[in-house]
Amino acid sequence: MSLYGRFFAAMYDRLMAGTEEAGLGRRRTELLARAEGSVLEIGAGTGVNLAHYPSAVTELTLTEPEEPMFRRLEHKFAAAGRPGQVVRAPAEQLPFGDDTFDTAVSTLALCTVDDPQRALGEIRRVLKPGGRLLVLEHVRSEEAKLARWQDRLAPLWRRVGHGCNCNRRTPDLIRGAGFADVSLEQGVLPKSPPVVRPLVSGQAVAR
């Protein structure tokens, strides 16, 4: 892990505090109100979502591939006292059996996975038939001018955002991964640079 990766993990909550207070935290609560049963969260980072899961969640499995984030996630999960586990694993290689979870969650995570198609395939595999994928992700803009700027700045942003892709077509990837009833609402990521402002939130159903 690079020195910048350790710095990014240490500063992440502080850097995102204004965005959370400006509306992202509310969006997390609204989205995760739909979570129930056995829940898998990919790319759980520092554990921001822990405070937003409802009582209908009976067990949480949080995955995070990067060691500096993982250590912070472990501490926050232990303090939360919720049933479940924290697993160090990439979304592209989930160490769980088929049809394991009732709900899967990805919030600001699919932008950073190396292979989003493979990650979505893994999520669909471990979800029970009829299980829901809940997503809150910044995406490539539907406005042509902003989309062009996202494409131009993507290489730089990947460095600044520690692997974050500002121009990823996540809704198309979800539909292409074989999910049904994909229902995504457009929005904006508050208090954020324009290249990561376009946002989608909603759900898809595993077949």
Features:
207 residues; alpha/beta; Rossmann fold; seven-stranded mixed beta sheet; 5 helices; 7 strands; globular
Structure characterization notes:
- The chain contains five helices and seven strands.
- The protein starts with a helix and ends with a strand.
- It is globular and about 45 Å long.
- By secondary structure, it is α/β, with parallel strands linked by helices.
- The protein has a single domain, classed as Vaccinia Virus protein VP39 (Rossmann fold, 3-Layer(aba) Sandwich).
- Strands 3-2-1-4-5-7-6 form a seven-stranded mixed sheet, with helices on both faces.
CATH class assignment: Alpha Beta
The fold-level CATH name is Rossmann fold
CATH second-level architecture: 3-Layer(aba) Sandwich
How many domain regions? Answer: 1
Portion in strands? 25-35%
Rg calc: 16 Å
Helical proportion, percent range: 25-40%
Oligomeric form of this entry?
single chain
Provide a count of the helices. 5
Largest sheet, order of strands side by side? 3-2-1-4-5-7-6
Overall residue-averaged pLDDT value: 96
Topology:
Elements: H1 3-32, E1 37-41, E2 57-63, H2 67-80, E3 84-87, E4 101-107, H3 116-126, E5 127-138, H4 144-160, H5 170-176, E6 180-188, E7 198-205
Short summary:
This protein has 207 residues and is of the alpha/beta class.
